[in-house]
TrEMBL record:
Gene3D superfamilies to which the protein is assigned, alphabetical: NADP-dependent oxidoreductase domain
Entries under PANTHER family matching the protein: GH17980P-RELATED
Protein name per its UniProtKB record: NADP-dependent oxidoreductase domain-containing protein
Ranges for domain NADP-dependent oxidoreductase: 16-302
Origin species: Penicillium cataractarum
Keyword hit for Oxidoreductase: yes
């Protein structure tokens, strides 16, 4: 089955930085609200950060983002073609998935309505390792149909397990006679875990994928001084206590050197992604942001790694050319600190979280205990 692709490769559009919509969810923020989303988006757009990644699972992120994007403060200044919108289908709650063709289509249409848009730039199948691969392949087929219908421009998959992401990408290339446009992997091109670079990128590239999103550069808030984030749903972070303790020790050491663990980790991830990018194979970093202060801090940190012109560029865009480069001077300054962090992490360096873990029944898409 042959499926057409967008005329412009996504690698020519995707910027080096993307705003993560999970910051507007109950998982990582207490009382997410429309005022918060509007304020953050207005400032992000002013600074040139105009690519957004969210999910129906990050409730109520899509709703809040849609309200903000349709607000006169945004619509009076920015047309729809001046920003990118990416969302996901398939994951409904922490323990509920639906990859059926009917639900995938219904979820996309609901996302269009929630985000107040006629089309979505990218739609991912969310957390593919939690469901049987055949269901993922069927869902991708539905998304590719919706590309032909004009509802979606590009199609991808997201998840943690690099081996499963690679296998699905190869299957798509064979079954649909075209590659996936993009893959999103989380918390594995970080200061703590670099498996995406070592184990994923070559396999993704061989499967024809042109873009990779490295999300959670701080490993869902683990790599910072003040511990993992706790939202309205409590502490959901998968890091075991030993890893948390090692990161705390490393963060204390970094602070003693006059540096921020979060800033060091973000610079490391952005730098790693940009150093491995080419014009036709782009690695981009998704930053989780919950406030204007966090947004401005993150972009200040990013500017220490990327040379970006003072004038905000559309999307901090892929076509910024020579103005987007790795700052090698800062890279040398960070190298010694990163090496010290790795020494402190010891056996926790490159540790991967179990996903979905032995307590999950992939065949039945439910916790294993639910079978009893």
């Amino acid at each position: 089955m042959s499926v057409s692709q967008a005329s412009t490769p996504l690698s020519h559009l995707l910027p080096p930085l993307i705003l993560g919509g999970a910051g507007f969810s109950h998982q990582v923020y207490r009382n997410p609200n429309s005022a918060q989303a509007l304020q953050v988006l207005k400032r992000a757009f002013q600074l040139g950060l105009r690519a957004i990644d969210t999910s129906a699972y990050y409730h109520p992120s899509e709703i809040l983002l849609g309200e903000a994007l349709s607000h006169p403060d945004i619509t009076s200044l920015y047309s729809r073609d001046q920003y990118l919108l990416m969302t996901k289908v398939g994951r409904i709650t922490a323990t509920e998935f639906d990859y059926s063709p009917v639900w995938v289509r219904q979820s996309v249409m609901r996302s269009l309505e929630r985000l107040h848009t006629r089309y979505l730039d990218v739609v991912f199948c969310h957390d593919v390792e939690f469901v049987p691969e055949e269901e993922v392949m069927g869902a991708i087929g539905v998304l590719l149909d919706m590309v032909r219908e004009g509802y979606i421009k590009y199609v991808g998959i997201s998840g943690y397990r690099i081996d499963i992401l690679s296998r699905i990408a190869r299957r798509v290339q064979i079954q649909y006679s075209r590659p996936l446009d993009i893959i999103q992997n989380w918390a594995q091109m970080t200061l703590q875990n670099d498996r995406l670079a070592r184990e994923g990128l070559e396999a993704f590239h061989e499967a024809g994928v042109s873009c990779v999103c490295n999300s959670s550069p701080l490993a869902i808030g683990l790599l910072r001084a003040n511990g993992v984030p706790v939202g309205d749903l409590g502490d959901f972070h998968p890091a075991p206590s030993g890893l948390r303790s090692a990161v705390k020790e490393a963060a204390d050491y970094v602070a003693e050197q006059g540096e921020s663990m979060a800033a060091l980790a973000l610079r490391h991830s952005i730098r790693r992604g940009q150093s491995l990018s080419t014009p036709d194979f782009r690695i981009t970093t998704i930053m989780g942001i919950t406030s204007i202060a966090e947004l401005e801090d993150n972009l200040t940190t990013a500017r220490q790694v990327l040379r970006v012109s003072d004038e905000p560029r559309w999307l901090w865009s892929a076509d910024a050319g020579p103005s987007v480069e790795i700052n090698m001077i800062r890279a040398r300054e960070d190298a010694q600190l990163c090496a010290a962090v790795h020494d402190i992490l010891g056996p926790w360096h490159d540790y991967s979280f179990p996903s979905p873990g032995d307590d999950w029944d992939v065949a039945n898409k439910k916790p294993a205990a639910a079978r009893l």
